[in-house]
Amino acid sequence: xxxxxxxxxxxxxxxxxxxxxxxxxxxxxxxxxxxxxxxxxxxxxxxxxxxxxxxxxxxxxxxxxxxxxxxxxxxxxxxxxxxxxxxxxxxxxxxxxxxxxxxxxxxxxxxxxxxxxxxxxxxxxxxxxxxxxxxxxxxxxxxxxxxxxxxxxxxxxxxxxxxxxxxxxxxxxxxxxxxxxxxxxxxxxxxxxxxxxxxxxxxxxxxxxxxxxxxxxxxxxxxxxxxxxxxxxxxxxxxxxxxxxxxxxxxxxxxxxxxxxxxxxxxxxxxxxxxxxxxxxxxxxxxxxxxxxxxxxxxxxxxxxxxxxxxxxxxxxxxxxxxxxxxxxxxxxxxxxxxxxxxxxxxxxxxxxxxxxxxxxxxxxxxxxxxxxxxxxxxxxxxxxxxxxxxxx
Length: 393
Fold this sequence. Notes:
- 40% of the residues lie in helices and 18% in strands.
- By secondary structure, the protein is an alpha/beta fold.
- A seven-stranded mixed sheet has the order 3-2-4-5-7-6-12, with helices on both faces. Strands 9-11-10-13-14-15 form a six-stranded mixed sheet, sandwiched between helices. The chain has a two-stranded antiparallel ribbon with strand order 1-8.
C-alpha cells in the first residue's frame, strides 16, 4: 500500500472533503449549528467548480429532506447534513425516505434538542430518529466519520435504504485532528458510478413513489421494509472489508477494546469511547479485567453479534448520552439489556446517563463508573440501576 498523506482537518471539514471526493449529483441542505460548516465548505467546492453537484439551498430542513427525496427518486446520488432541531424538523420526511427505499446519505452532527435551547453535543437527536428506518453509523473520531461517509454511500446503494452517519457536535465536528484521506480517484473508484434501481425520469418504466396504501396493503409494505434490513449487516461487513483492503483501516459492526478476557465491560458510543479507553488502560495496569464495546452500527441493531461479544461479561455499564423521559433508562441501555435477557447467565446491566447538553465527561467520572461496576461485581448488589453522572444535585 502506497504511503498516504496526513492532513489536519476539523471533523466537519473532513466530512465536506469526503462529500467532495464522492461528488454526489445533488446536495440539498440548510445550515444549523454545529453542522453548518459541512455544507458551507462543500458549497465552496461547488462554487469553485471542483464538483459537479447540483447544490440546492432551501428554506428549512424539512425542505432539504423533501428535495433529497425528490432527487433520489429521480435517480440522483443524493446527500445532506443536519443537526438537532434540523433533524427533528425532518421527522416526517425521514419516514418517507426510508419507506420509499431511497439511498440518501446524511451526516448528523449530534446536538441536544430544545428546550431549553442548547447547541452542544448529546445524542437525543439521532436517538429520537432511531426507529425511522434509517441505517445508523456512529463515529468516534473525524477519521472514522470521514471513512463512514464514504462507506455509507456503498451501503445505502447496495440495500436501497438511507444511511445516517453520526459524529459528536463540537467535540468531533470542530476539533482539529490529523486524518489520512484517500485520493479523489480512490474514493470515486470505491463508490463507483451510481446506477439507480429505478428513476422517475425513466418514462419507459413508470412507477409510483409514496402511493396511498390503506388497510389492505400498508402492513405488507412495512413488512417488506423490515425484511430489507436483513441484508444490511452482511453488506456493512462486506463494504468494510473492501474499504480495509485499500486503506488498511478495519471496521466492523462494533469495536471491542480489551474485551476478550474482561469481566466488567462498558458500552458507549462516539467520542466518549476514546476517554473510556484511557481509563481502561490505566485500570488494566492495575490488573483489573475491564474492557469496552463501542457500537458502530446501531440501526439495524446487530443483536446476535452483540450477544456473542458481551455474553462472557459479569457486569456491564451502558453509557447513554440521551434520556428516554418516562421510559426505563437511556435508549442504548434498553437495547443492550433487552438483547441479553434470554442468556442463561446474563450479565447485570446498569445505565449511566451523562453529558446531556454537552456537559463534559471526565476520566474521573468514568473511573467512578468502573468503581460502581466493580462493587456490583464483588457484592452482587445494584443500588441504582439507572444513574446520572456529572449532574449537579
